[in-house]
Specification:
By secondary structure, this protein is an all-alpha fold. The protein folds into 2 domains: 14-243, MFS general substrate transporter like domains (Growth Hormone, Chain: A); 248-457, MFS general substrate transporter like domains (Growth Hormone, Chain: A, Up-down Bundle). 75% of the residues lie in helices and 0% in strands. It is built from 18 helices and no strands. Helix 1 (30-43) packs antiparallel against helix 7 (133-169), helix 2 packs across helix 8 and helix 5 runs antiparallel to helix 7. The longest helix is centred in the middle third of the chain and has 54 residues, at 175-228. The two termini are 24 Å apart.
Length: 457
């Protein structure tokens, strides 16, 4: 694979110096990158599960679809988007952050506008198919799946990938603590997003809310990307963390040099699969839990308000562990965080497995909070730590394909398990079994040989 034009360059790229030269900033431009990258993640909310969920009932009513059908359409669109994420990562490595993120924002806005007319598009499509009741059902499912593919691919997929990866390329020693700051901001934004979106829906209607989100993307997100996004310090004629004082961290950890690996080389490393499987597993399980949260708590005798109330303490614990884990990652190896996250996942599954136990709600909140926080740490810091910055887009994109696929399959798997035994006991058993298997696999991947060369980083 050729060397990346984003990292290995001899002089600044002219386009990176327009409309202004980041090297002339009075402070390290990476801090601006961290800020706009965080905003980029927040602008992806219309394509995230919590952003889609507030529109689900409105789409069901407008299209006349059952909840199962719209869930299946959501799964189909998300799975198809997952198939393209590796290619999107490679494209990002080649085209750069500004071009890729700008295209993602434009297409995401278009997909939101598409959803404002999705019911009328379904009617038009059904007429071409003969107008029968069967044709109407197929048309509604198809146009909805196409729309879900668009918002999931360009929102949850490409815009998230570019925003996060760009920030990680601008930092080395401080990568963990920058990830901590990003984690706090995104956790707060993602937690409050459903309330804000519901407020907009109440004021403008669901179609007006989608149009308003599209306008925000084009009027605010797109100019921000074109003005401030930059690929790497090297492309701007700078060095990583240029002008920043070196941190006093563990000498052995600091002196390690990470060789840049291609995606093909990374896939031959068991650590890649350990982290990829863990990240995609939690994407599957956490998305399924979020999607079915009201029904899960209904089986315990709680109403919807009581069900969603657990998100606040989960978010608080998640932010705490994201912050502590991110800072710790600058000075320590990552496997301990990997195993702690899996223990939290298993604890959450055990709580669902034992819904009548007095301890279950507290353990559920603690387990999901710890896992959510450390998941973000490992997804942000793990890939550049293990495989360098050169092919980070391709590597992160390939892992994102697993993560997106997991988020697509999770709700459907939970529904299948619910249909099987009229409860979520099997889902809880799965929540314990999955992390247990990954703990065993992680021990083999990280500790199959002595760490004299830092193999577990």
């Amino acid at each position: 694979m050729p060397r990346s034009p984003l990292i290995h360059i001899d002089k600044p790229h002219p386009k990176a110096l327009k409309p202004f030269n980041p090297g002339k900033s009075p402070f390290y431009y990476g801090w601006i990158i961290a800020a706009v990258g965080t905003l980029g993640l927040l602008f992806s909310i219309p394509g995230q599960t919590m952003g889609v969920s507030v529109f689900t009932d409105h789409l069901i009513k407008a299209l006349g679809l059952t909840r199962l059908r719209i869930s299946t359409a959501y799964m189909a669109g998300t799975l198809f988007s997952a198939l393209l994420m590796t290619r999107a990562g490679r494209l990002y490595d080649r085209l750069g952050a500004r071009t890729t993120a700008s295209a993602a924002v434009i297409f995401l806005a278009f997909c939101l506008l598409y959803f404002t007319r999705v019911d009328k598009t379904a009617v038009l499509f059904s007429h071409f198919m003969g107008g029968s009741p069967a044709a109407s059902g197929i048309a509604g499912f198809t146009v909805t799946a196409i729309g879900f593919f668009g918002i999931r691919f360009f929102g949850q997929g490409v815009l998230t990938l570019v925003s996060r990866t760009m920030v990680m390329r601008w930092f080395e020693e401080r990568r963990g603590r920058v990830g901590a700051y990003m984690g706090i901001a995104t956790a707060a934004g993602f937690s409050y997003a459903p309330r804000i979106l519901q407020f907009v829906i109440d004021g403008k209607g669901w179609r007006g809310a989608l149009g308003f989100l599209a306008l925000l993307l084009l009027a605010i997100a797109l100019p921000m990307i074109l003005l401030f996004f930059r690929d790497t310090p090297e492309r701007c004629g700078m060095k990583v963390e240029q002008g920043l004082r070196p941190l006093k961290i563990h000498k052995e950890r600091h002196n390690r040099k990470t060789a840049d690996a291609t995606l093909k080389e990374a896939r031959h490393d068991l650590r890649y699969w350990a982290y990829a499987f863990m990240l995609s597993w939690w994407s599957l399980y956490n998305t399924a839990f979020t999607f079915h949260i009201v029904d899960i708590f209904a089986t315990r005798g709680f109403d919807a308000v009581q069900a969603v109330s657990i998100f606040l303490p989960i978010t608080i614990i998640s932010v705490i562990f994201n912050f502590l884990g991110s800072w710790a990652s600058d000075a320590m190896d990552l496997p301990p965080l990997y195993f702690l996250a899996l223990i939290g996942m298993a604890a959450g599954g055990a709580a669902i497995l034992s819904p009548d136990a007095g301890w279950s709600k507290a353990v559920l909140i603690a387990g999901f909070g710890i896992s959510n926080g450390l998941w973000s740490v490992l997804n942000n810091v793990g890939w550049p730590r293990l495989f360098g910055r050169e092919h980070l887009g391709a590597i992160s994109g390939s892992v994102m394909s697993f993560i997106v696929a997991g988020s697509a399959l999770g709700p459907w798997i939970f529904s299948s398990l619910l249909n099987a035994d009229s409860g979520y006991i099997r889902a809880g058993l799965l929540g314990v079994l999955g992390p247990s298997v990954l703990i065993i696999f992680g021990i083999f991947a990280f500790y199959r040989r002595k760490l004299t060369s830092g193999a577990g980083r």
